[in-house]
Amino acid sequence: MRRAIFPGSFDPLTNGHLDIITRSAPLFDEMIVAVLNNADKRPMFSVDERCAMIRDVLPTVDTGDCRMLVESFSGLTADFARERQATAIVRGIRAVSDYEYELRMALMNRRLEPQIETVFLMAGEEYSYVSSTLMKQVFELGGRVAGLIPELVESKMRDKLNP
Ligand code: PNS
Description:
By secondary structure, the protein is α/β, with parallel strands linked by helices. 40% of the residues lie in helices and 20% in strands. It has helices at residues 15-24, 47-57, 77-83, 96-112, 132-140, 151-161, and strands spanning 3-8, 30-36, 67-73, 88-93, 117-122.
C-alpha cells in the first residue's frame, strides 16, 4: 500500500495544485490532500471551506485508481505523514526560487521522519508562475484568473469579495 500526503495551505486550490495531484496520483494507491490549519495566517478561506472546495473539485480531475482523501492537519507535516502511515510527501516545484525553501523543508522532514521520502514534481510549465497568493491578489484587483484556478474556486472567491 503506497500512501502519500500532498500538504499545503491551498488558500485557495489552483490548477497548479491539480496538475501536481493528477500527475502524482498514478504513483500511489492513496493520496491525502493535507490542508494546513495555520492559525498564524489570515487566510481568505477557512480550513473547512478549503477542504470542501478540494472535495468538490477532485472528482472533476483524473486521478486514476488512486484513492483520494482530503484532511486538515495542524502541527508538523512530518508528524501528520507518520500518523497516517504515509511513505511519501508530495511537493511541486515551480521555479528555482522554490527550490531552496523546498530543499530545507525536505531535509528537515527527512531528519524528523527518515523513512518518509519527499517526492518532487516539476510544475507544468503553464502553471509555473501560478500561486495561491498571486491568484488572490490578481482576483481582488479585478484581473482575470480563468484557466488558472478551478471555476468553483473562482465563484467562491467572487462570493467572498461580494458577499
Ligand atoms: O502551500 P504551502 O504554503 O507552500 O505549504 C507549506 C507547508 C504546509 C507544506 C509547510 O508550511 C508545512 O509543512 N507546514 C507545517 C509545519 C511544519 O511541518 N513545518 C516544518 C516544515 S520542515
